[in-house]
Amino acid sequence: MKPVIAMPSDQLIEVNPRMPGDYPAYAPHDVKEAVMKAGGIPIIIPFPDDERTAAHWAKEMAPLYDGLLLPGGPDIDPRLFGQQPIKEIGMTYIAKDLFEIALIKETLAAGKPILGLCHGLQILNVALGGTVYQDIHTQNPDAYIQHTQATIGNFLTHTVDIKEGTVLHELMGSSQEINSRHHQAAWKVAPGLVVSATAPDGVIEGLESRDSDQIVAVQWHPENLFNKYPDQFTVFTNFIDRVNKAKKGS
Q: Rounded mean pLDDT of 93-101?
């Protein structure tokens, strides 16, 4: 049987006077397509509105899937890493953050693989004890690249350098051109994670587990690139391979 891949939902916060509280939950279309093409069965895992129940529902839902894919999403609530919000921060949704953190912990405890994309990389880092820049260009004076691209999402905008000895290096080699649409990024790296890729200005573009291949995460959006650039698809095929390997070992 193909592995089941869970994707935590995002949520459109829109006012509909005819249907108050009718906020669609969704996951990115291109991520779903990449998972299916790579050989997985994607399912959307909704988060509870009551943030106090995040840990409970994560424990209930974790047995339903074989691997966890954390896609892009809103900014991360800075209270989760001991900061107050600066004026440049965007929309946050702490109920989603807390649920994803709880899912991450349940998934890791169960020995199941994780793939993080953009927001997914950032929430992984926070869940494991790291921090993020609330806004790169406000808090990092050395960041000279425009990381929030103004062009179409499947266009390449800058390069990343990939470190030898990492899973990402095995998949993509020492350098890649990527797309880029984020204004937050990992800052202090969590214990147990290592940096696998950086932009030319030093901004972190990849993180993964220090002593295993359980976690692989990238700051860009390979789901928008995989149909045109085969190297980008390896992020998803590797994820499904890791999930299948973990299933066989369980």
A: 95
Give the CATH number for residue 161.
Answer: 3.40.50.880
- Tokens matching residue 79: 């209270």
Are the CB atoms for 36 and 5 separated by under 8 Å?
no
| Straight-line distance from the first to the last Cα atom of the chain, in angstroms, rounded to the nearest whole number | 15
> Which is it for the CA torsion 226, 155, 170, 119, positive or negative?
negative
Predicted TM-score of the model (pTM): 0.95
Crossing angle, helix 119-127 and helix 94-109, to 10 degrees? 70
Range of the domain at 59: 4-249
- Give catalytic residues, as residue numbers: 118, 221, 223
Q: What are phi and psi of 129, to 5 degrees?
A: 110, 10
Name the domain count of the chain: 1
pLDDT at residue 160, rounded to an integer:
98
| Contact yes or no for 121/69 (Cβ under 8 A) | no
Torsion, CA 25, CA 4, CA 92, CA 79, rounded to 10: 140
